[in-house]
Records
---
Amino acid sequence: MTPTQGATPAVAFAGAAKAYGDVRAVDGVDLRIERGETVALLGRNGAGKSTTIALLLGLCPPDAGTVELFGGPPERAVHAGRVGAMLQEARAVPRVTVAELVGFVGGRYPAPMPVGQALELAGIAQLAGRRVDRLSGGQLQRVRFALALAGRPDLLVLDEPTAALDVEARHAFWRSMRAYAGRGSTVLFSTHYLEEAEAHADRILVVDRGRIVADGTGDELRRAAGGSRVSFDLAGRPTEDLTLLPGVRSLEVRGDRALLRTEDSDATVIALARLGAIRGLEVAPASLDDAFLALTTTAPVPEKESVR
Amino acid sequence: MRDYLLLETRRTLRDPGFVVGGVAVPVLMYLLFTNLGGDAGDWKTGAMVGMAAYGAVGSALNTGGGVAEDRAVGWLRQLRVTPMRPHQVVVGRALTASVTVLPAITAVLAAGGLVNGVRLDAWQWAALAVLLWLGSVPFTLLGLGNGYRLTGQTTGVANMVANLGLAVLGGLWFPLALFPEWLRAVSAYTPTNRFAQLGTSVATGHAPPGGAILVLTGWLLAFGAYAVLSYRRGAATD
């Protein structure tokens, strides 16, 4: 799992951009993923995760900038069998069994794993003889995971791999993913679950409106977003002056309770004590949710923005 | 490539729509059309060629339906992230069609020889099968063109309209002798008519006429261009 610095990175984006009409799905992304890293692409729906992945896999060319895998164009790495991918919108391939499909896809790669092993890793060994178009959504998702693994790729790309899985299947999935990553492969997965990103990635890239707005471990993101939150009962007290207190970065009022995000909880609490505003006072470390909200745009995106 | 061909052939043969529409229907229609209303004589041979051609056209077009379906479910996109080259996928699909037209041709010819007592020399049977097989290529390209351009449902409709329209107009179902003069003139330019002509000429002991080869080559180029343009458009959005 130790990233190999210095060698050609597994993934390198330089100023990559892709627009669909007026929508800038990917808006100038610079990004470098070293070999052996496990990286999460975290963002809301529509933040640009899937387009980033489409660019990375060479499914569409960037409008501007460059995208490279292992020091060359994505198509070359894909053709050389170095990339395995689990695509998000894929549905069941009709009239084929699980083992046939996984065996076929694995067989395109130079050094695939045995079909049984791929099915085992994906937790679907018992489904080998079943027709793919007769599986449940969760089973199908695991088939797609097996397709991504089957060729034993150097770079495994997983677009929202756990979206249709129940809790148990989700745990099994992450165990398998970690086992695979542990062999020295590079793994990139996208998710909108913060806990998954923190628990299973060495590094989190936060994507918002087509840009990478933060890059680091969960702890680093928390720090970047402001260290702690302090809350207390307002009891009818006005709130205008609270944002001026030392350390405070933002204020949120929930019912009669004020919630302050602060970089320096000690200074904030002392100042609150001077004001006598300490009823029901609580200090807690910022959650990753808070970090995520602080890093991404919370304002609702207008349904339609006319530029003409 | 061999694996892809095997996989797609297997998938096609598992499709009940293909087995019924592409094999059973031509055979049944052939037996019905030639055994209702007394002695059909020569028409037993003509209809055999016509229905084998009809079945081959249906199976060839069906390949396009498969492509539209594969696009819709994301299978073609999945293939694009494997080491397979895009052109290998297209060629593989076209080759699949060349395999899956064989059941229709074989079944109708077998019905002619075994049930309807059509008697031809061994070389005629062989040449007939080979010409029907080769002549189905333009229709495969038409089907692929539809499959890469249209959605699954519209591909199905487009293929059906093309299949029925070209079959009737080309005289695969009814003898051309029943057509009015002007329609016969139109029919001579249809790919289906010329496709069947390849077969009937051999069945009557002649070499295929140059006109048939000329017209079919024209359609081959036209449908080939259509398939290439559709593929470029379809591949850009998938």
Note: The mean pLDDT of chain B is 91.
---
Amino acid sequence: MAHAFSKFGAEGWYCPKCNKPLERVSVNVEYMGASFFVELPGCPTCGTILVDQELSSGKMLEVEKLLEDK
Amino acid sequence: MQHHELESFEKLCTQDAPPACQCRCPVHVEAGAVACLVSSGHFDEARKTLERFLPLAALTGRLCEGPCREKCLRGSLGGPINLPFLEQMVVTLGKATKPYPLPGTGHRTAILGSGLSSLVAAFELAKKGHKAVIHHLGPIGGSLIKLPEEKLPEKVFKETIESLKRLKINFVELDGPLSLAKISDDFKALGFEAVFIGFDDPAIEPKMLGLTESDLAPDPVTMAISRANFFISPVNLVNPHIEATKAGKIAAGSLDRLFQGVNPSSAREKEAITESILNVNLNDRESAPEVSPADPLNPTATDAINEAKRCLACSCLACLPPCPFLQDRVSYPKKLAREFYNNIITAFGNRSSNRFINSCAQCGLCGQICPNGADLGRFVDLCRLDMVATNHMPVSSHEYPLEDQVFSNSPQVAFIRPQKGSQDSKYVLFPGCQLPASLPDVTISLYRHLTSHLDGGVGIWTGCCGAPGRWSGRAILTSKTTEAMLGAHQKLGAPKVILACPSCQLMFKGSLPQIPTIGLWEVLADLPLPKESSARPGSFIIHDPCAARLDETGQDGVRSILKSLKQDYIEPKYTRRFTMCCGYGGLVDQAFPEMGQKFVSQRVMEANAIFKDANGAFIAWCIMCRDRFLASGQRSIHPLELLFDPPKEDDLIAPKPPGISKRRENRLRLRRLMLTELWQEIIPENLQEAPQMNLAIDIPASVLEDFEAKRILVSDVTMVLEHAAKNGPTFVNPESGHSIACLRPRQVTFWVDYELKADGRYLVHRAWCHRMTLPNVPGEGAESPASSEGFARTGGRV
């Protein structure tokens, strides 16, 4: 699953609070009672994560639907 | 859901029922399958199919009399299919399959007689591993050997007998005369457990054996006679060969059961000759005469293929042509009901049919077409209720329409008032939630028209009837909605409710039967035409909404108004009770937009075939149908527009219907206009629709279009931007000057990519959303109506 979400598409984006460029961050995502760790672009300091449009309408939507049909 | 609910539905759909020919065949040959294989020249496969039903097909296939022809539906269209000819060609041209008998069981049957029934019984027993010994008086085969060579070639007969011998079937010649007592004792002494007597062998005479008349009438289910473990083939058969085949086959089945310790008569209902219950529509079928071989003595494969092509391949599938959902699934109601039931009872693993359960428009057309009223939508209704009750309805499927229902019934939108200046309300107009969303001004004109022509006071009552909740299987939400409606109606003095929306009419009838109602079109048909009303030039086709397929009064009312308006229109093929759904029904478009599009496309395609010019348009008296046609680029007009909206210059161009955000705005606008202008009320600040901050937000049209597909409201984006204005953006991109902000106000996280321009305006580039939860996302994450009922798990929106 970590591979599935790990496409990094956040070049040029910064966290304005920490003033840090986004990096790959391991994060726990949850849905329908299932949780798993994935690597997503995020702030290395405060851990705020960016879910880009491609991910939300692609792999993430696919996994959401799979979990809804469990 | 209970299994008996599936069973009761399955009984209604006859598509799986065997056709008339198969029901009439004594051994239930799948004649349609044989003909289908022959028609494509597949004689080997056809023989394989034939051999599944016809034992010793080399003989029986040449001798069958074809009683199926009595019932063949081709009979009235050029003459019944000549199945005996096809069978003969199949066993002549098709390769025989080698039988593989089961290992020996040690059970022994004595067979008396060597006619067709005896040979069949012996063959069937040998296949099951039981020993069969044929005792014959005179030559093997009985009357079979007297048949002419062209009917049964000697070579074929001899090969059949040899094949039986290879199955370890013994032939023993007896000396006559015989008596029943003697053969009983002799057979018993030889270790035989049962006896089969084939009277189709003329050498075996009942008189000779001393059998009484009652002994000669076997039980039709088992072929057993009163004497223990004795089975016979009946005498005086109408179709001597195929019925002897049946007798031998049935008796062998009884003996096999007997040897296994099973009641020989159990579970044999399907072996009886019955009447077919399969519904077959012959209306569009053309007549075709029977194919006669050019040389009757040497028929060719082509002769057989041409005759087989005449087979009507009887099936029902009457509900498929107008239904995009059934076509897409290449299935029929009975099969789908079983698939859905299996999905519902899945304990572990994926419920892969959820999506399809939510793809039925529940429009009722299949139920109207079906002679037994098999309405898949009603079964789907049970499935959806069950899915919600057992926490298995995907939250994302119906989330948006449920939120829309709650929005429409919120105090900011819904209102109920008696007519201004009137103490009593004889009537109240309930326009529904979608008419004000699409045509707020027309709705107001309609209300004014009613108040100026109806006596006794006409109140107004806006809101949603609860149909989205009902369609999505939310029983609790539906019951809460109807309860609140009942209270509101009582408070107004229980007036008669004038219903403008066909779906509301169904909801009131089903969930609020105690509230007196009348359809808008019945009311309007009795009133004078509004002065601003006018017919439109061009070609029009009337489209009845699926919710009103049984509302003849409404259908007549609309047509009567169109006639008064002198509005020309034509009726489509599927109209009134057979009308087609636009894809809004059952929330298909919400759960499965591609399927929703197929519904609207099919209706539009049908219309385009009727319209001779490019300016054809629908007159659709459900606003959702009108909007869905417009969204697909098909001109469409609501009769209320003909009545209250003066003709516009661009009437001949299909305007875009309002999007989801505009629809909400229009509902708010209707409330504001009506309360301030008609009732001169001041709307309290807490019930005003304006956002908290007055951000200047620009959203390009292409971005708004993208919002529609994602079901993202402008108000969602405004909320995110207001949060960013107060707390700063989540991410920034100094190079592009863009910012990204996110917020999770409910069980959906929204992301907005925007630019804050130097003039303080926000330019929105993109927005997207998802349902998965991440850490550090601001927002309340409030439950939505879709996740609050029967859904303990949190959970995407399309």
Note: The longest strand of chain B covers residues 762-770.
